[in-house]
Each structure stands twice: as structure tokens, then as C-alpha cells.
Design brief:
This protein is an all-alpha fold. The chain has one domain (16-238). It contains nine helices and no strands. The protein is globular and about 45 Å long. The chain starts with 15 loop residues before the first helix and ends with a helix.
Amino acid sequence: MIDLPTAEKHPESPRPPVIFAGVAGMIFLLFLLITTGGTGLLRLLGLTHSLAVAVFANRTLFWVCLGLVWWFAIKVEKQPLLLWKERRQGFWHYVGALTLLPVVITVALILVNSLLYALIHKTEHSEALERMIRYCRAHPFLLFYSAITAGFTEELLMRGYLLPRLEVLVRNRGLAIFLSSLLFGLGHYRYGTIRNIVGAMVIGLAIAIYYNRYRNIKVAIVFHILWDTAAFYLAFRHA
């Protein structure tokens, strides 16, 4: 497991306007990246001629976004990216967490998808997701790079950075967990279906509850990478 710098104790938080600026800035950066794919910047850098290069560069921009947020936390907020001190866990905790999280989330997704089907009376298909599956199937390296990028950047941003700061702003841990999960779900709207948004929200909710309880971002990162890899692999089998 990797070691990530965290606060040794819950630090004295900067003024709420500074935290709000960081949260709003992070959400704005991700919104631009999700909605545009960073095509303007990639075109300026000449990285859009090859689709494979463009996809790789797009994923790399998420690392750039993480770097900018990390810089803001250290230099402007003057506190670590991770406000919550990282708790070391025993071997069997990691095994149990990485075993139970997929089971809990799978059951929750089955229930939520059944409820959605009962409400809208149809099964939605995401053309954007299907195109991505076909493309990643033809370029396995991009599949693994995308999964690793999503695991690290999304967990460090949405859970590690955003969740504790939302709690500082709204002064309610449950509401902070819900808001972070809602934003995580909305971040998947480009897939084009309610099912994808709600499904991502359910996954984000489960990870946020885990992280709030056990304060271990490493498990969240590893789980996210494994979940995305397994989801694409199963999609390949049924494509």
C-alpha cells in the first residue's frame, strides 16, 4: 500500500470562504473536464490528431486537476489534501473491506436498478458507455490507465479532498456524505442515462460511508480500480 501525506491531527481549518473557494474550484475544473473533455487544451497542444493519444491525454488531465487541487490545499489552505488522518488497518481489514464492498454495492445496485425499472418501465442503454467499451477493448492499455486514473484521482478528489471539507462547510457529516455522493453521480451524466448517474451515486455513497467510518483512502483507491477493471471486463464478455 502507498503512503499518502495526511494531517497528524485534525488541523485548525482556514476560514470557510477559503475552503468554499477550493471546493468550488475543484468542482468547476472537473465540470470543464467532464463536459469538454479538455478538447480545447488538447487541440492547442496538438494532441487530438490520434484518438488514442486524445483519450490518453484526456485521462492525464485528471492528474493535472488533482495536482492543482493538491497545490491549493498546501499553499492556500495551508493544510494537507487529506484532512482526515489516515488510519492504518490490519491485513484482514483490507481483505474484508475489498470483499464486502463489492457485495454491498452489487446488492444495492440490483435494488436501485429494479426500482428504476419499476418507475420508468424500460431498460436504458448508454451509447457513450458502449462506445467506450468497444474502444477500450481494442486498446487494453487505455482501459487499465483509465481505471488507475479514475481510482486515484476520483477517490483523492471526491472522498479525500471534498468530503471532509463539505463537512466543515455544512457542519453535518451525513449531509456531506450525501452531497459528495450526489456530485460523484452527476459527474457521470455524460453516459446519458439516469441509471448511470444513480448507479455512480450509490457507489460513491458506499465508498464515502466506508471512508468516513474507517478513514482509509487506500482501500477506496484499490477498490475503485478493481471495480472499474472488473466492470469493463464483464462488459467485454457480454459485448
